[in-house]
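lol ok so funny story. i was supposed to be doing the assay writeup but got distracted and ended up predicting the structure for this chain instead. priorities right. anyway since i did it might as well share w the group, maybe its usefull for someone
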Amino acid sequence: MKLPHRRQFLHLAAGAAALPAASRIARAQTYPTRPVRLIVGWPPGGPADLFARLIGQPLSERLGQPIIIENRPGAASNMATEAVVRAPPDGYTLLMISSVNAYNATLYDKLNFDFVRDIAPVASIYRGPGVLVCSIEVASGSNMTCTCPASKSVIAGAAPR
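and the output, tada:
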């Protein structure tokens, strides 16, 4: 039997010594290993809070960690959204959003975040109808058209008459 050269032996020995350390580094981490915060941008008792609490318990049971519902009302949920954007991107801070968050992206010029760039969707929890209404004084005719006084834009729709 031919013995390996000294250089080959040293390479094999170094590789064998580094193997246990490399396996610890490459091992996948389990998620979650600590409680997960679910931030709601509305006060307790509202529809968004209700949905967060309805999914919180089953999600906690499935993940094996507590889901902490944290209400951060204010600025049409922009404060809650900014808190999530500023949180470490580790998956332990989630945000309960609604269509209002999409409206905010177009209504507010100086937000400290870009909703489309900074927030990634994880799951769709519920879907609800969206209804646009206006005062009867700005509506005209049986096929309703609303004229937005601020921008003079005309929005067409159908009247329930």
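The chain has two domains: 36-118, 131-161. Helices lie at 6-26, 47-63, 78-86, 99-107, 115-118.
back to the writeup now i swear
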